Amino acid sequence: MSSIVQRALAVAVLVTAGFAPGCGAPDKPAIVTPPVAPPNAPADGDMPEFASGSTWLNSMPLTRADLRGKVVVVDFWTYSCINCLRAMPFINAWYSHYRDAGLVIIGAHSPEFGFEKDADNVRMAIGKFDIEYPVVLDNDFAIWKAYNNRFWPAHYFIDATGKIRGHHYGEGKYTESEQTIRALLTEAGAKNLPPPIDAATDEGVGAASDAANVRSHETWLGFARGANFKSPGSFARDSSNDYRLPKSLALNEWALAGRWRVTREKAQLEAAPGRIAFRFKARDLHLVLGPGVNGAPVRFRVLLDGKPPGGDHGTDIDPSGAGSVREHRLYQLIRQQGGVQEHEFTIEFVDPGVDVYSFTFG
């Protein structure tokens, strides 16, 4: 092995200690509690076989034998995870830049929420984010466990002989990851590689986090992981309940108003109108939302400190704060244009039936 390849592979294992849990922690991966990987599953070593019977999108089912002689990147992701979406422009760029040189990228889609198990929802995300490489649905986390994985996103770098040669957890280190890809392609015999990618940027949800100014992190609205909930009386678990906002909220506290049913992973509005308030500090505020059982669009309006957001509106609302929920996904509601300040965010739903899963920030 050449010294260039050795140096590139030395930076491929880019594991950082001290990750905060939650898919919305800027530049840090989500640490996942369930399911627990088997204790002896390999982080490195031979590439595990893909689980038989899995649904594949953008490709026929692939096996280790099919991939022999190719350099492979296995990307663990889920489509409502903001960290995964911020990494997506780079993964797409690697694929388009190096696929003719022998690179294969496989997106192992391991869902955080129940709606992410639906193949049609994942197809929608594949189209929205211009994903052209194969995606395998890992709904029972069989591939996840085989890799002993614990994070979204996670990238595993596999050489042409089927050996895992490195891995990276979370956002960032894109230049080092590309160096690893180039080194493995060179080792496999690729000639005349194109120059390294200058940049892979996105102006929307995929834009890099303003991590230095983030003081708010992922907050779930289901009772299983909900924290800092301040409506008087706390959660009425799996039951309809009338909630109200407190007189004030401190940073990172949130509350419901109206008639909601709170389950393990979400809050569902049973009668309109209904509101959610959250006091936050970050450039971006996102909310994972779905239109409810009947699929009818749900209209809403966002306020920032009691006023329309104007120029601080996100990509999924207009300056007046108006928007609608039409599919299950992550919605960008606030992107501050000036200096990042602490604000009270409020969203009011005009129609019932909305499912609300989690806040994320960036």
Low-confidence stretches: 2-22, 24-28, 30-41
- Please tally the helical runs, counting DSSP H or I stretches of 4 or more residues: 6
Report how far apart the termini are.
Answer: 40 Å
Shape: elongated
Oligomeric state, counting identical vs distinct chains: single chain
Element order, helices and strands? HEEEHEHEHEHEEEHEEEEEEEEEE
Rg is 21 Å
Can you give the mean pLDDT? 89
Helix content: 10-25%
Beta-strand residue percentage? 25-35%
**What is the count of β-strands?**
19
Describe this structure in words.
The chain is of the alpha+beta class. Helices cover 16% and strands 30% of the residues. The chain contains six helices and 19 strands. The protein has helices at 3-10, 64-67, 82-98, 119-128, 142-146, 174-187; strands at 30-31, 45-46, 56-57, 71-77, 103-109, 135-137, 151-152, 154-158, 163-169, 219-220, 240-243, 254-262, 267-281, 284-290, 298-304, 322-325, 329-335, 342-349, 355-361. Strands 10, 11, 12, 13, 14, 15, 16, 17, 18 and 19 form a ten-stranded antiparallel sheet that branches. It has a seven-stranded mixed sheet with strand order 2-9-8-4-5-6-3, with helices on one face. The two termini are 40 Å apart.
